[in-house]
């Protein structure tokens, strides 16, 4: 899981740097979508996750959780944060 998150975060950081035209991630870092779009997605997906949990729909829970994790990592990158800061906070709670 760590490797998966690190690989995804590396792709997100690359898209932020290179801004390929056909990249959804890159569009989030430009005025085309921007921070508000990321925050809206996190709000929508949280609601969808709650509904999936209420339905005990495991496939949908995994799908919505993945959407949230992806947009959360985009938000961290947007704020010039990195995975280490998230890990440090989680470790501090152990
Ligand atoms: N993990 C994701 C990921 N999760 C979700 N999304 C996109 O997030 C968008 C919104 O997701 P939704 O589930 O809300 O889908 P939707 O309601 O149909 O979207 P909208 O039409 O409302 O925008 C969709 O366009 C999804 O494709 C993602 N886009 C990219 N990634 C990862 O980022 C990598 C780079 O992607 P690009 O930047 O597109 O090259 C990919 O290889 C993936 O690993």
TrEMBL record:
Signal peptide: none annotated. Its main location: cytoplasm. The keyword Amino-acid biosynthesis applies. One of its GO terms (cellular component) is cytoplasm. It holds the Pfam family PRA-PH. It comes from the Archaea. Its EC number is 3.6.1.31. Gene3D superfamilies: MazG-like. It is found in: Cytoplasm. It catalyses: 1-(5-phospho-beta-D-ribosyl)-ATP + H2O = 1-(5-phospho-beta-D-ribosyl)-5'-AMP + diphosphate + H(+). Pathway: Amino-acid biosynthesis; L-histidine biosynthesis; L-histidine from 5-phospho-alpha-D-ribose 1-diphosphate: step 2/9. The keyword Cytoplasm applies. Keywords: Amino-acid biosynthesis, ATP-binding, Cytoplasm, Histidine biosynthesis, Hydrolase, Nucleotide-binding. Belongs to the PRA-PH family. This is Phosphoribosyl-ATP pyrophosphatase. It comes from Natronococcus amylolyticus DSM 10524.
């Amino acid at each position: 899981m760590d490797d998966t998150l690190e690989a995804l975060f590396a792709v997100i950081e690359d898209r932020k740097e290179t801004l390929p035209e056909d990249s959804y991630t890159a569009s989030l870092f430009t005025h085309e979508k921007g921070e508000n779009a990321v925050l809206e997605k996190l709000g929508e997906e949280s609601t969808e996750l709650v509904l999936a949990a209420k339905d005990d729909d495991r496939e949908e829970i995994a799908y919505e959780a993945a959407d949230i994790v992806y947009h959360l990592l985009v938000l961290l990158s947007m704020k010039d944060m990195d995975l280490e800061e998230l890990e440090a906070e989680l470790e501090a709670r152990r």
